[in-house]
Design goal:
CATH superfamily of the largest domain in chain B: Vaccinia Virus protein VP39
Strand order of the largest sheet of chain B: 10-9-8-11-12-15-13-14
CATH topology of the largest domain in chain A: Rossmann fold
Shape of chain B: flat
Strand order of the largest sheet of chain A: 9-8-7-10-11-14-12-13
Radius of gyration of chain A: 26 Å
Helix content of chain A: 10-25%
Largest sheet of chain A: 8 strands, mixed
Order of helices and strands of chain A: EEEEHEEHHEHEHEHEHEHEHEE
Number of domains of chain B: 2
Structural class of chain B: alpha/beta
Shape of chain A: flat
Strand content of chain A: 25-35%
CATH architecture of the largest domain in chain B: 3-Layer(aba) Sandwich
Oligomer: heterodimer
Number of strands of chain A: 14
CATH topology of the largest domain in chain B: Rossmann fold
Radius of gyration of chain B: 32 Å
Largest interface: A-B, 90 and 86 residues
CATH class of the largest domain in chain B: Alpha Beta
CATH superfamily of the largest domain in chain A: Vaccinia Virus protein VP39
CATH architecture of the largest domain in chain A: 3-Layer(aba) Sandwich
Strand content of chain B: 15-25%
Helix content of chain B: 40-55%
Chain lengths: 297, 471
Amino acid sequence: MSFVEYSEIIQEGDVVIIFLGHESMMPIKVQSGAQTQTRYGVIRHSSDLIGQRFGSKVTCSKGGWVYVLHPTPELWTVNLPHRTQILYTTDIANITLMLELKPGSVVCESGTGSGSLSHSILRTIAPTGHLHTVEFHAQRAEKAMQEFKEHKVSHLVTVRNQDVCKDGFGITGIADAVFLDIPSPWEAITHAKSAMKRKGGRLCSFSPCIEQVQRTCEALLDHGFEEICTLEVLLRVHDVRAVNLPLPDFGPEEGSDDRQAEVPNTGNTSVICRTAIPPREMAGHTGYLTFATKPRD
Amino acid sequence: MAECENDSDVESRISYRDYVVLKRGDVFKSVQVENKKKVVFEKQWFFLDNAVGQLFGTRFEIEAGGSLKLKAAKHSGDSLDSKEAGQDNRHIVDDGSSQKLTRDDIETLKEQGLKGQEIVQQLIDNSTTFKGKTEFAQEKYIKKKKKKYESDISILKPSTRLLAMMYHGREPGKICHLRYDTLAQILTLGNIHAGSKILVFETCAGLVLGSVMERMGGFGSVIQMYPGGGPTRAGMESFGFPSHFHETLHEFPLCKVNALLAGTLDLSEKDADSEVSGSGNGQSESTQETSAVSEKNSEPQSMEVSIDPQEEMRRVERERLREKKAQEKKVKMEEKRKKLASAAALLEGRNADGLVIASRFHPCPVLMCLLKFIAPSRPFVVYCQYREPLIECYTKLREQGGAISLRLTDSWLRHYQVLPNRTHPVLLMSGGGGYLLSGTTVAADAAKARNQHKSEEPVAKRLKLDEISSA
């Protein structure tokens, strides 16, 4: 198992995702002899997990069952332990596309936060790219390093514990793309520019507040960035339902024969409609995404 | 300055046969750089020859005659002076007479060879209301005129981002109205990455296929399932992938899927024959030739004289050509057969790592069929321009099982204008970008009976002794 490569069989040391039911999952680290409690009972790693195929059904001690899934950055995003507010798949997908990330890309990111975007970037740039991620909080930086190691991706990433606004990314002239999710991104634009390749690159800044966006766009313009574009994207989920719509009774129709009027047609008192409805509430805002291109020096 | 990217600079230069993306403002067009070929873009025509050898990302001016010229220095955006400005528009009357230059005047200026920036300055100087506009209005006016009269184009290296935006802006019908943010979701939800084996079924001109290939980086394999005679790849070619990427691309016709699933797919030469549409033509060609030869042969016979040496030479020549053509055809069919066999071999294991469907076909049968080739615990994503067919897919999957985390979603996208004191969402917004159904495959069979028994016995005892739950 690795977050950047699929495998078929669960092994000791793997991180797997246990699927318990609708919108209910949990990550566990597979260890020989270990056990995991779930609401359906106990999962015994040695017999139930190790050697089994990813995607299998696992019956727990109380008789209920769960599925064991291969980890992906998307599954990780909804299951990871939050140390900060994280980026979700919808934004991550657009960032990946607009930054033109692909295998071999060299990317700079700050702040690392809880590593949600980091895992997604690593998956996309593997096996030949590299991620330079900067986190100014010492414990978070440490935790991120640990997780990357556990997830077998540490060869693709370098974590630096420093302040990107003061000290930059620790490298210059090698990045294809830079991502900023920090309180004052306009203070990091100079460093972002110098981290990028001479031939140019793409930049993205994520900010929840419009004032931050305004200051960032101004800084980007001042530094000669082009194609400056700000957008926001939201996911709308459609809950598929079969709904029962009762049909009203208008009384017997004029001019129809008595026979028809008397017999109640039970088969037509309601109709089942297959449709999808929006949830009561939805995420209305995550942040504004500002993209720009650094032209050739 | 020491650069660690000297080799990449070769890649950074435009060459003949390269696929590039032309850009003017927010308008894009994908073209191939060819010798002395006229290109039409944004109401202008020009030749790309002068771009060869230049770096990607370069800006060009279009000169009279259609040749490209490097844009001189980097111009600062607001070099046009506007010292005087009004406070609001209470006195500005829009009667259409504020611009003193006529259309003909402007044409004359163009013919005189005035640069776009100079024309814009002329328009400002000849506008009676310009000085009365607010600063914001002046900026907006200048921006608008620049967009119209400055004809700079940039030549860029193709990428999913540029091509997806281009197709969505120019020919959305060709890509089933797939908006670029929806495509972004497809690629991420599908966990498309290097080294995996992905099945793609699309009728989006090859854009989806190309974007999947870009994310695979030439590692792993992509199997394109196709509905009719042959796979559409035009959009994929526009990405300009290096040749080794094409080796990871396979194709397999849908009409043979049932045979493959049943294990009755015939990969012998006979089958490849019927698959090749040109075989019929080939046959008639050779029969035509044979009849022509026999006709010619009949001539000397009717003359009843010994064979003319020149005629003999011609006959031998025709014979040789016919054999050569038959040989070429044989080689082609063998190639086709090999390709079919290699695609079948990749599919047979039923262990593909992902499935992407984006087509004008009803997604339900396609999905239910192609899921059979996907390994358990792998993502699949289905795009449809409309919602109802995906509701059907969702319902069917729920009934059948074998898939979890089913989600029917669509993406809401809004652009913003960000300017000091003028920040607001852009006036026009995309109404819709299509719908996605995504999910994860799981093993269809029930849990192993063996494990069930095993976990029943020692459980009670062991629970007390060691309850190491790991997180």
